[in-house]
Amino acid sequence: MFQLFFTKFIAFFTVIDPIGTIPVFIAVTAKMSKDRKVSVAKKATLAASGVLLFFIAVGEVILEVIKIPMSNFQIAGGIVLFLFALTMIFGESKPEEEISHIDKKEDVAIFPLAMPSLASPGAILAVMLLTEKSKYSVQEQVLTSLIMLTVMGMAWLFMLFSSKIFDRIGNSGAALISRVMGLILSAVAVNHILMGLRAFFEN
Fold it and tell me: Subcellular location, in the record's words (predicted)?
């Protein structure tokens, strides 16, 4: 049970990347009051959690409606996750890329904080793959949801204490951590691809 919890926690911590969200949060809330920053952090966390819970609840149903086997989605999802990981390692880091997308006309709690910073494409794929109904019991799916919410709770705390954390690690530190997370994510992605291929050939 502990190994399952630890594995899924690492997977979610990697794809959600709450540390990489810190410089993004600082950039979009630079001129806001303390109360406004707290409100933005809360709204972003709730919105991102809602998006991921939605895909946990109905993501697989959507695949069934459009008649896409879960093994196919797992292979495709693994490939997308791997490409996503490569951009984290070799391309712009998460903070640099998402800060460049800031549009002052948008609700920054929704874009870029909730999506794509927290509820990223990688996170959406991960929650669907880690709650596959044919592989995981209802109890395991609930546990996975709680693990995801735990990581979201950490992201919320990181945003609340972002200034103090950023003073210690800086933008370069956040970028370095993001690249390490990308390396871990690439290994997770390869595992999903191999599992999907095995399920495909077994069927």
Answer: Cell membrane
